[in-house]
């Protein structure tokens, strides 16, 4: 009976962990990028050393970091949360050209008034 109880508890904890991840909570990631101001709306996370290309399949703006393409995010980022003293670099064009916004520290940036809905590539690094 004790084994059945232990098994049930493990299943409950596993379900809770899945629900937490599915709820949009982004623990452990270096940088969380949000669709709206005030860290609201849809969100995606990058770990330190990762880059997301948001507009095309060109990884030229990723500066050699581990790159992935995220469809549907071009020009949609409005706020950023940083964890573990990470740095987020937002670039206007996927080839790295154009304006660049750097956000540093262990904090959230509730809005990017001078770079709202501009990023086509984002990098996260320590």
UniProtKB/TrEMBL annotation:
Keywords (A to Z) from UniProt: Signal
Signal peptide: 1-29
Gene3D superfamilies referenced in this protein's UniProt entry, alphabetically: Crystallins
InterPro entries xref list: G_crystallin-like
Protein's UniProt keywords contain Signal: yes
Protein name: Uncharacterized protein
Organism field: Aquibium oceanicum
